[in-house]
């Protein structure tokens, strides 16, 4: 089989490379000449563990290629995937579909045989029908069908998610289109992956419903963590106690500074706007969005409180600025609220992130960037962990203590044990856990 993948961002590049690993011939298309040149030279423009080897292997095998020429890419394909960005539209929070609709118009110009046009981008309900209308308007004679195939990839583990998914969702407008999509995913039949075939609208809504549910779950445990701090309970024990219930599950029950990234913030907001537009508001998700926005801002207040109520003239060492580990993605990262708030309060911020500093430099002016974790610590008044990179989990606490002016750690990801930190002589702040003495672990 042959496919074209329009867009070489996170979704397009990962999906294209993984399809090629299945034996499909994939041509990835992008208008960014610099990005295509880098990909042809073996340079990966995003950080995703294992992606460089996957791309190199399939390029060498002749199954994966990169071009700016959509007409060339569409020759003889069974399907063309739209995997372009759908950022939040400025001013109203709706998904910006201009790139999707632009891709549909270009696809229409080059259709010369039956092709399934697939929306891989996260799009609001009704987008697939509009893509179909655009193509019909430009090319009334074209032979094609529309399908929706939402992605459920987690940054940092996207290849595994694609190769061993919980499910594949396909929204198809015809049996013929459904059969083409089943053939593409046939390798997954061997591991008995559920293939859920639905209408276009159902597939589109399923993606948003999944992301907003997970965002709500994160927000729920964050609020429970706040309650734990008031009543002396341990949020991790609460999370385990409820997560062992099969109806709830243990995933996404880890308290932190709020969700971020390329999906949850924009998708929750887009679904809220869609629901409001059709007169069926989602009050729960509206609240989730509001709580999460406020929580990220409140995290700076925790750091300031741990430093005695003021950071004016003090140096704060920050470990991690990406929204999660194993990615360089800074989109809606909590650090984008926390770091400026600390700077506004008079702090000097010295930071390190294993992957995201190149991007973060553009977004967080005035930060002193270190070469490694220990490089942030010398003479700092406290250290705050914002991202749970593995290399931060086993720091030499004696060395950390000796480098800080005061042994103060604010652990917004709860990667250390309060008892261990107390024995090491730290004033330790985490989220939703009691201190060894029985009081709350708030610094």
Description of the structure:
This protein is an alpha/beta fold. It folds into 3 domains: 2-198, NAD(P)-binding Rossmann-like Domain (Rossmann fold); 208-289, Orthogonal Bundle (N-(1-d-carboxylethyl)-l-norvaline Dehydrogenase, domain 2); 296-430, 3-Layer(aba) Sandwich (Rossmann fold), CATH 3.40.50.720. Helices cover 42% and strands 15% of the residues. It has helices at residues 10-21, 33-40, 51-60, 70-73, 98-110, 127-138, 158-163, 175-184, 200-231, 235-243, 264-277, 283-306, 335-344, 357-363, 397-403, 418-423; strands at 2-6, 25-29, 64-67, 79-82, 115-119, 144-148, 168-172, 195-198, 315-319, 348-352, 368-369, 382-385, 408-411, 427-434, 440-442. The strands form 2 sheets. The chain has an 8-stranded mixed β-sheet, with helices on both faces. A 7-stranded mixed β-sheet has the order 11-10-9-12-13-14-15. It is elongated and about 75 Å long.
Summarize the structure.
This protein has 443 residues and is of the alpha/beta class. Helix content is 42%, strand content 15%. It has helices spanning 10-21, 33-40, 51-60, 70-73, 98-110, 127-138, 158-163, 175-184, 200-231, 235-243, 264-277, 283-306, 335-344, 357-363, 397-403, 418-423; strands at 2-6, 25-29, 64-67, 79-82, 115-119, 144-148, 168-172, 195-198, 315-319, 348-352, 368-369, 382-385, 408-411, 427-434, 440-442.
């Amino acid at each position: 089989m042959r496919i074209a993948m329009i867009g070489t961002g996170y979704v397009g590049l990962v999906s294209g490379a993984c399809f090629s690993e299945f034996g499909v011939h994939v041509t990835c298309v992008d208008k960014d000449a610099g990005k295509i040149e880098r990909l042809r030279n073996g340079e990966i423009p995003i950080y995703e563990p294992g992606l460089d080897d996957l791309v190199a292997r399939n390029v060498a095998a002749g199954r994966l290629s990169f071009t700016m020429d959509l007409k060339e890419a569409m020759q003889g394909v069974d399907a063309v995937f739209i995997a372009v960005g759908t950022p939040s539209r400025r001013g109203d929070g709706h998904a910006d579909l201009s790139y999707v609709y632009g891709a549909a118009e270009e696809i229409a110009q080059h259709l010369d045989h039956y092709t399934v046009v697939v929306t891989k981008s996260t799009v609001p309900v009704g987008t697939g029908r509009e893509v179909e209308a655009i193509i019909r308007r430009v090319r009334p004679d074209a032979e094609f069908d529309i399908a929706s195939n939402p992605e459920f990839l987690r940054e940092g583990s996207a290849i595994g998610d694609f190769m061993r998914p919980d499910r594949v969702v396909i929204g198809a407008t015809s049996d013929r289109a459904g059969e083409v999509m089943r053939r593409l995913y046939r390798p997954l039949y061997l591991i008995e992956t559920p293939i859920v075939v639905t209408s276009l609208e159902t597939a589109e809504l399923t993606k948003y419903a999944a992301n907003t549910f997970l965002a709500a779950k994160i927000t729920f445990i964050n609020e429970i963590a706040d309650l734990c701090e008031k009543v002396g309970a341990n949020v991790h024990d609460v999370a385990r106690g409820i997560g062992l219930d099969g109806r709830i599950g243990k995933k996404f029950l880890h308290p932190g500074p709020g969700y971020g990234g390329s999906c949850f913030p924009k998708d929750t907001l887009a679904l809220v706007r869609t629901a409001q537009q059709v007169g069926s508001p989602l009050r729960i998700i509206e609240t989730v969005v509001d709580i999460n926005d406020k929580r990220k801002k409140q995290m700076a207040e925790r750091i300031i409180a741990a430093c005695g109520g003021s950071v004016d003239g003090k140096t704060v060492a920050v470990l991690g600025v990406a929204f999660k580990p194993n990615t360089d993605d800074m989109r809606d990262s909590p650090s984008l609220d926390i770091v400026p708030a600390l700077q506004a309060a008079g702090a000097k911020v010295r930071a390190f992130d294993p992957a995201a500093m190149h991007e973060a430099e553009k977004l967080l002016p005035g930060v002193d960037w270190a070469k490694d974790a220990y490089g942030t610590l010398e003479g700092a008044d406290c250290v705050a962990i914002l991202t749970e990179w593995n290399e931060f989990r086993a720091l030499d606490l004696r060395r950390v203590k000796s480098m800080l002016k005061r042994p103060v750690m604010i652990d917004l990801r709860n990667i250390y044990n309060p008892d261990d930190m107390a024995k090491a002589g730290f004033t330790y702040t985490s989220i939703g856990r009691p201190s060894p003495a029985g009081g709350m672990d708030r610094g």
